[in-house]
Amino acid sequence: MGRFIQIVEVGPRDGLQNEKAVLSPAVRADFVRRLEAAGAKRIEAVSFVHPKYVPQMAGAEEVMAALPPAPGHSRIGLVLNGKGYDRALGTAVDEVNVAMSATDGFGLKNQGLSVDQQVQMLSDIMAGRRNAEGAPGATPKLTATLSCVWGCPFDGEVSVEQVNDLVARIAALGVEEIALADTIGVGDPWSVTRKVEAARKAAPDATLRLHFHDTRNTGLANAYAGVEAGVDILDASAGGIGGCPFAPGATGNIATEDLVYMLERAGFSTGYDLDQLITTARWIGGQIDKPRLSALSRAGGWPKSAG
């Protein structure tokens, strides 16, 4: 077995949140189960946002309640603020992922908070977690995702210095895993290398995760650059569905099946069953009336094909 690359499946959250189709909690829970059957160990299953703003994510509690326990798997809930965090604690999520932004422009549009206010929000959450230590189940694992690391639809370019500063501030609060996200898909492999190196220097003890969108067809190239830079955790979405409703022009994530194919052809290990993953990608495409969006859902695997 080659080097293991963990792929965090984000289709049930980031994948569905920008689609016109609004799927029921039961269908979304079924999506999670199908992904787990295909090999996904960590899944961003729900988002605790107000349904007024993201109706596709309504019923997060119902989704979690419909999922049976799955030892060895981790279901993640995304939160934008303290209220979302409190909602997440009332469910069986295994992890909480706090969404933040590298820019004031996107932060204000996405969650109504400037960068400094987002850091304060995270600081308050971390303080509450310290106060709850010792209470069983009170503090699921917490990670943070930093959006717009490679560019913001409102503020434009994002510098290495901006990323370095904010990653250092997040790590100083005690967050052990930090994801760098190319929310609008403007990154390139060389800038990936630079910003991964900067983040590693800013937070040498933190685990880095990368989250790419394929808006301008550079998603897999950016994933390659991240792996070459030593990152072992990447986000992806089955079928390549997704985007952000608060980022004009943003399109889907890199497709999980395309990423698995690339990595495993190169000798890496992912733990996914590619044929079953392709079948799942085709299934969710049918649910949202967008069949066979990804390269692998159209062409199948090789030499063994899913059909």
Question: What layout of secondary structure does this protein have?
Answer:
Layout lengths: L5 E4 L1 H5 L9 H13 L4 E6 L12 H7 L7 E6 L2 H8 L5 E7 L2 H8 L3 H17 L9 E7 L12 H13 L4 E6 L6 H14 L4 E6 L6 H10 L4 E4 L19 H10 L8 H14 L7 H5 L8
Helix pairs in contact: 2-3, 2-11, 7-8, 8-9, 10-11
Q: Strand content of the residues, in percent?
A: 5-15%
Largest sheet: 8 strands, parallel
Low-confidence stretches: none
What is the count of DSSP helices, taking H or I runs of 4+ residues? 12
Order of helices and strands: EHHEHEHEHHEHEHEHEHHH
Helix percent reads 40-55%
Task: Give the number of DSSP strands.
Answer: 8
| Protein structure class | alpha/beta
> How is the largest sheet built, in terms of strand order?
1-8-7-6-5-4-3-2
| Rg, nearest Å | 18 Å
End-to-end Cα distance, whole Å, is 26 Å
> Averaged pLDDT, please?
94
Overall 3D geometry? Answer: globular
Describe it for me?
It is a single chain. The chain is an alpha/beta fold. Helices cover 40% and strands 15% of the residues. It contains 12 helices and 8 strands. The chain has helices spanning 11-15, 25-37, 60-66, 82-89, 104-111, 115-131, 160-172, 189-202, 219-228, 256-265, 274-287, 295-299, and strands at residues 6-9, 42-47, 74-79, 95-101, 141-147, 177-182, 207-212, 233-236. Strands 1-8-7-6-5-4-3-2 form an 8-stranded parallel sheet. Helix 2 (25-37) packs across helix 3, helix 2 (25-37) runs antiparallel to helix 11 and helix 7 (160-172) packs parallel to helix 8. The longest helix has 17 residues, at 115-131. The radius of gyration is 18 Å and the shape is globular. The protein starts with 5 loop residues before the first strand and ends in an 8-residue tail after the last helix. 50% of the residues are buried.
